[in-house]
Amino acid sequence: MMLRLLCGLLLSLSISAADAAVRVKDIANLKGVRENQILGYGLVIGLKGTGDTLRNAPFTEQSLQSMLDNMGINIRGTSLRTRNVAAVVVTADLPPFVAGGSRIDVAISSLGDASSLLGGTLVMTQLRGADGETYAVAQGAIAVGGYNVEGAAQTLSQGVATAGRIPNGALIEREVKGRFSEMESLILELKNPDFVTATRIMDAINAHGNGRYQKVVAFERDYRTIVLSRPRGTSPVRFIAEIEELLVEPDTPARVVVDERTGTVVIGRNVQISTVAVTHGNLSVRITEAPIVSQPNPFARGETKVVPQTFIEANEPGAKIAILRGADLQRLVRGLNQIGLKPQGIIAILQAIKAAGALQAELVIQ
Q1: What kind of architecture, by CATH, is found in domain 22-32+183-248?
Q2: Least confident of 233-242, 251-260, 291-300
Q3: 27-71 pLDDT per residue, tens
Q4: Which N-terminal stretch is annotated as signal sequence (predicted)?
Q5: Phi, psi at residue 6, to the nearest 5°?
Q6: 3-state secondary structure at position 214
Q7: What pTM was computed for the model?
């Protein structure tokens, strides 16, 4: 039933080419326009006794002492026992061409043995890039989606209480070098490289260019990249915006994806199976132990003993045989449903069909 519903959804999405058309911006990215990852180490304060145990997390104690030293408070040699502080790692994605003074979201994750960050506030933390430069500074109250409540004999928790986010919690201090208008070349990179898809994108862009600019503006380099030639007098932003709105039907390879852990089977639209006959049956054996007590008759010599008694039952349900002709996805699904199998049985059949050389598709097992 699950396979029927899943493949029925795939069929409904692929009824016509118009329904399968997507925007260029959803299947290709502009080379060089990407995010950069930044991170930092900081302290969260204001916790209600759910912070790090300083003896188990000495880095938290050292960080707390260093922060207080910078504020002119000397506590060196003092044994700290606070449980309202937690060491955290702060991560964020720096958007491309972001300007100084903008704000971005940051993610907070506990580094020590804190049980919850609920109600905490992140102290000013510098976020650095791979080059070691500081690009943003984060600070603010943390929004935690989970909770963790502990009692003397019971613990109640939901979600992850040791991680959270600060919306607009980081302030951009340094801009990434380079501007969009200064890019020497405009190159589209496909997210799923394919020769047919690259050709269709190039044809759609050139059809638009011939109608609007009376010239060819796209040239394929390989199955992954397409080079764009911006017409004179057109801003790069408007030129890319027009191209990203063009509709293209991407080509997908024939592929079957199987997840044995969850029993999920996803079959692509172009999957075909050569004519094969398939049968599938399961042999189940059940062994039941029912010991009985053997007791001698009255006034008879003997001992009371426990005598083992075993019942063995074997059952092999009648297996159905079906002929699969994979001319299209609908017939393939109909043939698999005739056998009446569960997802695990369908996975076993697909693996056997692939081993027999009848599955004309790539089988991906996760």
Answers
A1: 2-Layer Sandwich (3.30)
A2: 291-300
A3: 998 888 888 899 999 999 999 888 898 888 889 888 888 888 888
A4: 1-20
A5: -65, -50
A6: coil
A7: 0.67
